[in-house]
């Protein structure tokens, strides 16, 4: 097997899938992503990996400590590192330019692997329930066609395509399965495909989060699926948050916080805690009177029945959202004794209130860093805004949209084992 397997990440988001593959020893050639804030996050992360490989992590620490600017950080790494994050929507009129940039970055090398999955809204059950036409005809339904164009051009040995489980039931206006149309197209491109529905809590992640992971292999061989090794450690939310400082609603900051001692092992085994670098984004949203009244009801229901409150069960005076048909479990308890939390959602800053139960001694909503830990992002992962000014909304959206890093790493580790 080649030692330096290189990959391309399409629809990369903030890089959860990519980070897992990097941790497993794969090397990124480029990331393609339409969201500008996520692209800044990716550039910052790629800068970190380059600086780490060069033995210059102190430069990155200076940035996290706000001693240098984002532009200063980017100026310390080769220009091609910054260029490797391609801020483009993947569409017919952008393919030529995207291909040109990737070709330049490859410098004649063979691309071994493509990873990534199109935005999930058009396939998700929630997304379809919110749309008047069930998202039939939504252009995002057809992004897999462009994914196939990358397979045709670069002919990698494998590809890893991820998406929500709603893809299995999504159909077009003629009742045809999008998933089966995808697999047929990938076969026409020369790839056999096999898939599994993997649930993150079986791989060390404290979330009940399911994803379709489809793997394609060039040629006609079957029976190649890289079954990731399960890992179900005995760890709870209380332990995962135990070394973060106690803060109340409205407290904390995007800048580094003073950590408490951590004497256990899971945060290290999961690749989350890094004692050499500052920990950022431990910042709680403020609570208003309505939040606090709802939280009291949420906690009371949890303590008595271990149930999460549904939005329509609230009195009318406490309902401020017009959407009553989806995201009905907006208010979620995060209790210390839980071994698996509810899925961390992309709309955390708007619709999702993850309430820290009083048994963790903090009467407030979850912070971006806590959400990132539930997604198994390393503590040294910094989530950017478009402007170099921290913004919780951008951070939460990126964290919630991501594939849990540890799940990605488990897939990548097994893929390396079975590589051609």
From TrEMBL:
Entry keyword annotation includes DNA repair: no
Keywords: Methyltransferase, Restriction system, S-adenosyl-L-methionine, Transferase
EC number(s) reported in the record: 2.1.1.37
Reaction equations catalysed: a 2'-deoxycytidine in DNA + S-adenosyl-L-methionine = a 5-methyl-2'-deoxycytidine in DNA + S-adenosyl-L-homocysteine + H(+)
Organism expressing this protein natively: Alcaligenes aquatilis
Pfam families assigned to the protein according to its UniProt record, in alphabetical order: DNA_methylase (PF00145)
Major enzyme class: transferase
Active site: 120
One Gene Ontology MF term: methyltransferase activity
The protein's name in its UniProt record: Cytosine-specific methyltransferase
Membership in a protein family: Belongs to the class I-like SAM-binding methyltransferase superfamily. C5-methyltransferase family.
GO BP terms: methylation
């Amino acid at each position: 097997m080649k030692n330096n397997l290189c990959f391309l990440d399409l629809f990369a988001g903030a890089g959860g899938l990519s980070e897992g593959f990097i941790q497993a020893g794969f090397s990124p050639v480029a990331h393609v992503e339409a969201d500008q804030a996520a692209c800044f996050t990716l550039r910052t992360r790629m800068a970190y990996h380059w600086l780490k490989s060069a033995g210059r992590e102190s430069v990155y620490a200076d940035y996290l400590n706000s001693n240098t600017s984002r532009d200063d950080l980017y100026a310390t790494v080769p220009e091609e590192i910054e260029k490797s994050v391609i801020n483009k929507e993947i569409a017919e009129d952008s393919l030529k330019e995207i291909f040109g940039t990737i070709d330049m970055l490859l410098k004649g090398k063979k691309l071994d692997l493509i990873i990534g999955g199109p935005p999930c809204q058009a396939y998700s059950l929630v997304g379809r329930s919110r749309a008047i036409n069930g998202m039939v005809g939504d252009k995002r339904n057809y992004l897999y066609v462009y994914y196939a164009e990358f397979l045709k051009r670069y002919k990698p040995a494998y590809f890893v395509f991820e998406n929500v489980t709603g893809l299995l039931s999504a159909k077009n206006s003629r009742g045809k399965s999008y998933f089966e149309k995808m697999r047929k197209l990938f076969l026409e491109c020369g790839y056999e495909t096999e898939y599994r529905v993997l649930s993150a809590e079986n791989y060390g992640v404290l979330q009940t989060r399911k994803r379709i992971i489809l793997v394609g292999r060039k040629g006609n061989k079957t029976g190649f699926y890289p079954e990731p090794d399960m890992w179900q450690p005995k760890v709870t939310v209380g332990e995962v948050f135990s070394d973060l400082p106690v803060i109340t609603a409205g407290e904390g900051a995007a800048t580094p916080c003073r950590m408490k001692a951590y004497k256990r092992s899971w945060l290290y085994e999961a690749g989350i805690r890094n004692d050499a670098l500052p920990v950022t984004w431990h910042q709680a949203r403020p609570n208003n009177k309505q939040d606090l009244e709802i939280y009291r009801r949420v906690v009371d229901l949890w303590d008595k029945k271990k149930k999460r409150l549904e939005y329509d069960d609230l009195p009318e005076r406490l309902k401020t959202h017009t959407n009553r048909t989806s995201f009905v479990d907006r208010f979620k308890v995060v209790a210390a004794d839980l071994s698996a939390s509810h899925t961390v959602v992309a709309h955390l800053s708007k619709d999702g209130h993850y309430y820290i139960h009083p048994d963790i001694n903090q009467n407030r909503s979850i912070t971006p860093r806590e959400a990132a830990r539930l997604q198994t992002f390393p503590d040294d992962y910094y989530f950017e805004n478009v402007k170099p000014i921290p913004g919780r909304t951008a951070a939460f959206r990126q964290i919630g949209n991501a594939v849990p890093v540890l799940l990605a790493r488990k897939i990548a580790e097994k893929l390396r084992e079975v590589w051609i």
